[in-house]
Amino acid sequence: MGVWICGLALLLSVFVASAAASVERIELMLADQRFVVEYVADPDSRRQGLMGRKNLASGTGMLFDFPQGTQPAIWMRNMVISLDLLYVDETGEIAQIFPNVPPCSSMPCQIYHADQPLRFVLEVPAGTARNLGLEEGQILDLGDLLEEPAPRW
Fold this sequence. Notes:
By secondary structure, this protein is α+β, with helices and mostly antiparallel strands. It has helices spanning 2-21, 43-48, 128-132, and strands spanning 24-30, 33-40, 60-65, 73-75, 83-88, 94-101, 111-113, 120-125. The chain has a 6-stranded mixed β-sheet with strand order 1-2-3-8-5-6. Strands 4-7 form a two-stranded antiparallel sheet. The relative contact order is 0.21. Keywords: Signal.
């Protein structure tokens, strides 16, 4: 019985490690600075987001890709770190910036709503937008991603 449990635990750890390793990373430019971000486009990955992460290194982040017509709404429940939230349209233009958004430790949590349907939300370390001089109306270089269709779900 003990061997069976150890085998199951090993199999589970390999599965979890391979799932974590399979996160797609893409490179993009913010104000001439290179960022390598995790790209999430499916409902489960978008729901999980950066929840539970204890840190987010400079030059990194997470890019959420939403289906056409989505009006994103993000909350910071179960977050440990503060973030800058950049809401970006289908052309790469920054539509809204929510700077230095703090974690939420108890309900009710504030929800950060987009003013209009948007394709992307980019979460980066708190202070990034200010440090790079990012402003609404600027165009982000999202590379070939803008040529791809939005996710269907």
